[in-house]
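Hello support,

Our group uses your service weekly, and this is the first time we've seen a run hang past the timeout. The protein is Propionate 3-nitronate monooxygenase. I'm not sure whether the cause is the sequence or the server load. Input pasted verbatim:
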Amino acid sequence: MQQAAGSSGSISLNPDSKRTSMGELLGVELPIIQAPMAGVSTPQLAAAVCNAGGLGSLGAGATDAAGARRMIQELQSLTDKPFNINVFVHQAPVHDTERQTEWLKWLAPHFQAFDTEPPTQLDALYTSFADDPDMLAMLLETRPPIVSFHFGLPSSQAIAALKTAGISLFATATCLEEAIAIERAGLDAIVAQGFEAGGHRGMFDPQAADAELSTAALTRLLVHETHLPIIAAGGIMDGAGIAAALACGAVAAQLGTVFIACPEPSADDAYRDALTGSAAHHTRMTSIVSGRPARILANRFASLMEEPSRLTPPDYPLSYAAGKALNAAARSKGETGFGAQWAGQGAPLARAMPAEELMDVLKQEWIEESGNAK
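Update from on-call engineer: The timeout came from a worker crash unrelated to the input. Re-ran successfully.
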């Protein structure tokens, strides 16, 4: 059994520690969490999930404190149920001029295909929560029921302040080492993100070797090796998937891609169309779009990873600035295949219906599947 750095012994399962119901952990009826999906989730989507008995989430990783405050206030006007606010805790990017110049030079022909030139420099679009005292202050003031972390953990001081404010804290883990770090930091639950999941991998160190564990394997491993409640995430699209996650020992399942086809998210028509087309059957894991590993639909941007290149993308979110500029150039000419169309491997199972209706379908499927399992 692996140990966390500086530990004197391994972590073993407390047989009673996993006997936490979804209601006890989150104060909600159903073991269904809507993934935060920064840039796509909306207060309307989160509210629909909350009001249907699940846990709605807002992704604040792509906005500032003022923007996150507006999202929280709008959500609170739509529901009185518990909800989750997710923030990014990525490492500050290293500005490597040579690497950025070479990257933009490699992308130049693709920009030129749309009659434009790449940007001359790359700026960090998003501030890490670790370097954003305004976001911390806003959360301490508004006190959302749950705050979750992606890409890492903030300082012990920030964690202590949030917990003192009565906020429950979750964090994403893609491997056992990250899960142990989350547990030792004193958080309340671990989101086990399997390799099937859409969007950005929650790896603490994007340069480290990815264990590439499936949702089921990672969930079982963390249930066995840690004491905290585990939330399974990645490739879960229906009630059977929810039941399977709970059978693996998770207290809840986190679903993201399944909600993109609903009318409430801010996904554009091109994204929705791609989700229901052949691209959904061929998702790709790539760092080309943003500088961090992320699973995307098989669009033109994803296909660039097949071009011969030994270049390493600039650090996240510097590469994202280039990616967004290329997407804007392409869209100006009517090409929508350069968008960040994140999706998990279960994408072909997406269903287009209002989120409230989808939640009812997921509930009925889960109840039926659970009854059949008995």
